[in-house]
Fold each of these.
Amino acid sequence: MPATALNPASSSVLSADGLRKTYLSGVQRLQVLSDVSLEVAAGESVSIRGESGSGKSTLINLLAGLDAPDVGRLLWFGQPATPDRRAEFLGIVFQSFYLIPEMDALANVLMAARIRGGAGAAERSRARDLLGRVGLAERATHLPAQLSGGERQRVAVARALMNAPKLVLADEPTGNLDERTGDAVIELLLGLCRETGTALVLVTHNVAHAAKCAHQLTLRDGTLC
Amino acid sequence: MPWPIYLALKQLFPTGRRFPFFTLISITGVALGVMLLVISISVMGGFQHEIRKMIVDTQGEVQVRGEGLIADPAAVLAALAQVPGVAAATPFAEGVALIEHERKPAYPGIQGIDLARIEAVAPLGRFVRVGSLDDLDDDTVILSSQLAAGLGARLGSRIEVYSPLLLEKMKNDEVMLPRELTVVGLFEVGHQQLDSSLVLVTLRTMQDLYGLGPAVHGVNVRIAPGADPDAVARAVNETMLRAHRVQARSWIEANEDFLFVLQLEKNMIFFLLTFIIVVAAFSVASSLLIAVVRKTREIGLLGALGAKPRQVAACFCCQGLFIGVAGTAAGVALGFVFLHFRNDMIRIFTQLTGSEEVLARFYQFSRLPAHTAREDIVLIIVCAVVISTLAGLLPAWRAARLKPVEALRSE
């Protein structure tokens, strides 16, 4: 059960406690997040909504360990979040897909496994399986430039799930897609997370997409509510 | 395969695409530098090799000379046979002479050779293009090809030889007739100086012309395969210097200054041409830096997927390395292709510019020599690959410093 107050539990895959983030804008200090706490249990899906500039992406970056909070504590599976645990623990889906253009869809999915430690026959088989599950089995050898926006995002979803992470963080994954394609991607993401027991934190503008998650939070004035 | 290597290869040679322009330009730059180095160093090595070959094939590897004349060459030859590393030896007498054919004079060098021993030391017979060394006797002569052409002499022509001794006697109003010798052969070593001004006669003829009696000017020595010429010369000096009053010098020592200048030229060419590779490396660095900027968000993605900064750096270092390896391989291959067809290319060029004779006159060789030493190629390869890899360091450092969150946010 997500909460704005930290409530450590053995099943928590993500525990954020009192996260605060301030940026310097010229000489002005801009507090983006103030005292954000969040707990996500295994297999749980949580949506975070908020207006543009409310700090959603900043929060995702903090939760992913890509940026450090000024104050606060972040735990992944009860252990401090460190960059070397990211490949094993986290899958991330970005709004802009971020596929490597020189590699085909299969190689892009496998890249997550390569960075984690290797891409043997088992990983290759899993990558093919994931591409099949996102409906791209026939497009495995296609380059990103040969795929539509929706297909690229589905490849990104498969890549996020490649290492069987405990948690997937999705930062406005439908932001660059049309409504119909966006709906399909969200269904796919939620379905796969449900199937694999993976927790999901979904940052989105879309009310309908947010409503599909088990828990809905809103980021307002730098805090979650 | 570690992923930085895999990704480096993918970025240089993307799936399903033609050879990327950036990769092609980078590899071509390194290849051109390496090719020029291979060609230049091989040609310089060729000059060295040809000179060595010419000296060794006409004089042997060690030359023994007396303080004056060697009065008893048989004793010296017998003593030389006992020196370790000496394979064969042949006495010689040498000087200059005025020769004349159909009133055309020339002042070539003249060398008297011991027909029974010469082939074991200096395979002169190999250079006789017309006639045969076997036909040489005390009444005959073998002329260098260009000298014969200059005199208008052919096989069977009779030439008159005036030695300094003869001229001295004529100066004292003695009536002396020049020695008449019949041309029985023409030789061509491939070195312009030798091919235009050398005459071969028998040792006895030369001893007569110079009034040497049984004495000779020196002994040429062929050393055993694998033996060191300097070591053999030292051994000869240690055992024979006092007893026979002779001194041995290896061909390396005798031509020390010339060989030093050749080596210096070769080193300077290597040093200067290496800068072509350095310039190419700057181009590689520039291209990779552009790639870092162009792929900033991908670098951010790698960080987001869990890549460590040193792995990202390794990816760009590997790109420099692969460009270096590919460029070096292509450069070495192109260099060898050029060297293989060098004489055809030079012939076409000199024919177009009408400079065939100039080439022979100024460079002493009728063909462009080339000799590629294995250690030179290894040095070129190591230099090119190391310099290219170093070119990847700055982009690698830039890439490693990028923070994933900032890289992903970049436009």
Amino acid sequence: MFEFVNTLLIGITAGSIYSLMAIAIVLVWRSTRVVNFAAGGIALASTFVGATILETTGSFWIALPVAMLAGAALSAFIEYFFLRPLLHRSGERTQEIFLPIIATLGILGVMKALLHFIYGEKIGVISPPLSDKGFIVSGESIALSPLRLMILGIVLVLMIGLTLIFQRTNLGLSLRAASFAPEISRLSGIRVDLIRTLGWAISGAAGATAGILQTVNGSGSVTPEAFEFSLLLVFGFVAAVIGGIESLIGAVIGGLTLGIILAIILMYVGGSLVFFSAFLILILVLLLRPHGIIGVKGGRRA
Amino acid sequence: MVAVHSRQITNKHRFIGFVLIGLVVYILSNIVDEWRAYQGATVAVFVVAIASIILLTGYSGQISLGHGALLAVGAYTAALTQIYFGAPIWICFAAAVLATALFGAILGAAAARLSGPYLAGTTLALAVGLPSIANQFSILGGEQGISFDAGWPPLSFGESFTQYKWFLWIATLAALISMWWVQNILRSRYGRSWLAVKSNEVAAEIAGINLGRTKVLAFTVSAGIAGLAGALLAMTMNNVSPSAFPLALSFFIATGAVLAGVNTLGGVIIGSVALVAIPLIASSISDRWSGSESLATVLPDFIVSALLILTVFLAPKGPIEKLRSRHSK
């Protein structure tokens, strides 16, 4: 029982980080209908920015917002200079999603190569700001540590912030309108292109946070070829698809489901089946609900 | 398919073309050294793998980011067939094709219900997940993998006949046969119904095409070809292990398909030569201009990725279509 609770706690922490990455992917999908593999590169690059800031200032709480800003800027840059021309040329209502995928894969590759070139064999270190020693409950240390609490707290704050933006502000309304009916939004005075870039920027900030938290939760250091980041990208995408790729709530549910089930499998079945079970979970969900847990059949076409 | 031009290319012409390509490779294989023969064999492997992607994505409109997993199924099947039945390699190849096609049919039955990002996500998860289960079952040899030995060339070819030349022959023959078969099936009623489903599902269904069956068939055929590519890859590496089929391999093949022009089979050789040549070009560039090691390690990836972005922007339908459309203007 004790062990099971610990496993759950580990799963929830990992899952909440996947949720953030899934949100990054969902935001981009909603605003431009692009499956954004560059999100992995953005997360990686902004984690390096965060590591550099942490090295100079020594404060995690300065490094995190700066990294988020860097992620937002980078993401907006990619949208503005690469995806916007590509989507404009191929026409708004193209069903082709293969080319944008390939474009973002190419961008991911270029970013990784550049990071590798800049940082070489150096690693970025993000030391945890809080202790990762578990709290003591009735004489035994549980998997919940101040660090894990902080991770969960950051994710929770971001999610509440995003929900407030989407539900309560004009910006959120424009974001939703621009992805729901771009032409009509344009006619009613929303600058759809700008809004899309903003959507990418928010996604970049979420991805950057996911990158930093993944690093802190894992080894505490990051390299351009870090396997943790490939995992983050793949699991984030899988979580987004499980949740129905349209919905922020879905992304959170997908991320937590994935995190918890994978933690249970890692604990009780064996490490070598973790990746395959991610595939099994995905295909089981999609066979029961081909458009994800929250997704709607047919969906909205933006 | 009405012939507008007076010079229509018939299957006979194509057959002559294939024989010529085979002849050229035969002559080349006698000139080049061992290392070039190995590269040639790799090009042939990629031709088969890329053709499999083009068939699936370019013709039937289904996205696969997980072809590396299908290659792995083929490679493991071939190796297991050899180890447990002691079968000659031709049988191993056939078994690889059949087993992977069967796997593809099961996967396709699930995939036919999915579209766009859902399919991309599923295949991606497969590419990450499948190779790692080799660590779970001891029959698959774990991280070390299991060996697959294509054997030495028959003695009747003479003493000087090298191992890699033999691989080159086998891979080229397999590539020619599968390309011949693929280009024929794409011109058959199946190929036409794939194209119909790709361009408009509703119209295709009204025209009497069974959507589900058509998509599953495309997945099955594509998987079978990918299985052959996997078995050939295992042959050139003498070994099958999970690390030979990383996610990067799936992306690498998709890259080749884009460089080749994903909507036309004709560019397949361009894509596969590019995949093999770029790392070499990159290393010669970095050797010449700087001895820096970090440049040498990142340059191939950088060039491939940059080319990918350029292709998407400048020639989204691939180099062949680009030339063709310029020609006809």
